[in-house]
């Protein structure tokens, strides 16, 4: 099982230091969250809390995850990065393809594209994109972005997007993996059908186990059961070596953690304390040899 450190709501001036330390102590990846803006009044409930409230306020720090990946990639050589997850629905696919391709090239193929639709109507409407039919539009966006990133002269004529022959150069030298987020059945079908993996928000181990079973069944239906597939999980009730072993046994391939939160520190804790937490977590889990037992 891989270990990924999430930098959710970490101050912007800490990101480079966190990346350097994460690589030094043996983490596999950095997970980069996405939020466009904080609307004072939200038209929809946040889907990943029991009461629909957001877990942050207007002062919580967010940086564009693609820019963050490029900055953190420039000071590391082995650490990977993936968006967890970028809200695809409010973006324009050709512009986004250019950005994703650039990050993949600048990091020497150390970037994975984690994607979701987006939950807030305001993020769509205030960016000039309709909220209606967002799922179908995102499905077509995935097609467009994969097509363009594949390189060469391409064209696309769909329901939502239409363009004649064009080419973006340089294309990434390796395919950019697409990780699909979301807990709904529609999202799981999308992940099984077109994804190289599935990313979760916060889930219990029981929810994870049930969902992984559903994903495996869907991947078999789509004829993709034998293809490599990542399960990137944020589990809220399995801790310690035994808990991590249970997650690996149920099919989690990538454990997303925030070590300083486990140590009782806040998201805005000083960088030095977060670096200590990264080292302590790595000694306890990454270098403990439990996966070799």
TrEMBL record:
It is an enzyme of class 1 (oxidoreductase). GO terms for biological process: alkanesulfonate catabolic process. Pfam families: Bac_luciferase. Its EC number is 1.14.99.46. Signal peptide: none annotated. The keyword Signal does not apply. Residues 11-231 form the Luciferase-like domain. The keyword Disulfide bond does not apply. One of its GO terms (molecular function) is uracil oxygenase activity. Keywords: Flavoprotein, FMN, Monooxygenase, Oxidoreductase. InterPro entries: Lucif-like_OxRdtase_Rv2161c, Luciferase-like_dom, Luciferase-like_sf, SsuD_RutA_monooxygenase. Gene3D superfamilies: Luciferase-like domain. It comes from the Bacteria. PANTHER family: ALKANESULFONATE MONOOXYGENASE (PTHR42847), ALKANESULFONATE MONOOXYGENASE-RELATED (PTHR42847:SF4). NCBIfam families: F420_Rv2161c. This is Pyrimidine monooxygenase RutA. It comes from Mycobacterium pseudokansasii.
């Amino acid at each position: 099982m891989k270990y990924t450190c999430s930098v959710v709501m970490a101050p912007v001036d800490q990101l480079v230091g966190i990346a350097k330390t994460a690589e030094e102590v043996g983490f596999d990846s950095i997970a980069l969250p996405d939020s466009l803006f904080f609307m004072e009044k939200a038209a929809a409930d946040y889907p990943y809390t029991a009461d629909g409230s957001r877990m942050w306020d207007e002062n919580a720090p967010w940086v564009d995850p693609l820019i963050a990946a490029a900055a953190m990639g420039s000071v590391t050589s082995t650490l990977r990065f993936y968006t967890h997850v970028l809200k695809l629905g409010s973006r324009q696919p050709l512009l986004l393809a250019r950005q994703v391709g650039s990050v993949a090239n600048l990091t020497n193929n150390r970037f994975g594209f984690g994607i979701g639709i987006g939950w807030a109507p305001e993020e769509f409407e205030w960016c000039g994109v309709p909220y209606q039919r967002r799922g179908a539009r995102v499905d077509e966006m995935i097609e467009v972005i994969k097509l363009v990133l594949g390189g060469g002269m391409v064209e696309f004529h769909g329901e939502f997007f239409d363009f004649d022959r064009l080419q973006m150069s340089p294309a990434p030298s390796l395919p950019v993996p697409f990780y699909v987020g979301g807990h709904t059945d529609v999202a799981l079908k999308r992940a099984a059908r077109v994804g190289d993996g599935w990313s979760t928000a916060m889930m219990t181990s029981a929810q994870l186990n049930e969902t992984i079973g559903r994903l495996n069944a869907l991947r078999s239906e789509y004829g993709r059961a034998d293809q490599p597939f990542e399960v990137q999980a944020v589990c809220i009730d399995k801790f310690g070596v035994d808990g991590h072993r249970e997650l690996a046994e149920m099919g989690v391939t990538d454990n997303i953690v925030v070590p300083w939160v486990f140590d009782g520190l806040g998201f805005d804790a000083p960088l030095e304390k977060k670096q200590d937490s990264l080292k302590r977590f790595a000694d306890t889990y990454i270098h403990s040899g439990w996966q070799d037992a």
